[in-house]
Write a structure and sequence with these properties.
Length: 306
Amino acid sequence: MKKRVLAAIASIALVWGCASSGAPAQTEPARQATSGPALYVARDADSAIYLYGTIHLRRDGEPWGSPDVEAALARSEEIWTELEISPEAEAQTQQLAMQSGIAPAGRPLSSWLTPDENQRLAATAQRFGLQAQQLEPLQPWFAALTLTVLPMMQAGYNPQAGVDRAIDAFGDANGKRMRAFETPQQQIGFFANLSPELQRQMLVEAIDEADRGAEMLDQMSAAWERGDVSALETLLNEQMRDEYPEVYAVLITQRNQAWVATLVQELGGSGVDFVGVGAAHLVGPDGLVAQLRARGVTVERVGAPG
């Protein structure tokens, strides 16, 4: 597994932001990104659904929207995010993450690794202010995400400054009806139920490449800000789809299929919805935009050819 895949996996994990901090969400007004993140709208005769790909980790004060995004939010009656974003939901997520992320008795993290790998784990953990013993009670998937996301956070990326949280704050401040596609149990299960072989692979990769995650997230953020959906597809999905189909199927394909079914049902009614989900879910052949178009739904990019 190359670092590009693991960094993409970590960036897709909205649940991580809910489980890692109880700090308040950022609620500053949106600043416009340089060229504007991609925003789409799906329409039929009496309804519209705006589709906005988000970044789950951002640096404090970085742009989360644009005038087009704010106008779409203002017009919408319902706002969809991947998870409910509330203190109660986050407390539940933290509890579930710890329950699922703690190793069973007799299966500490070190037992997944060779002596050489354990030495590298200790060195990596120390480099980022941890002791290997602190990771010892964790399942491999949870330790891998910890070792990947922690350097991103130390580089200034903050789950509490993610675009999803700004969208949720806008909705709360403007009396919108907030809805969620998934539960914390589902999102944590995506990782906790990965095969043991893949969990170990993720862990070894995180040990050896932990300090490169922030650079990868810088590239993702720059592509997102300029609305470069082709670059996002390459960075977020392409290698994962081709080389790690189990992860891609669990994190992208299966979830998109479930969400598209919900969106088609929403289009069967009337009114305006806004959908803010991770950018990886909008782009590429399995993305929400392509899947809706394949079902005969008209989907256009707002403000630019799509």
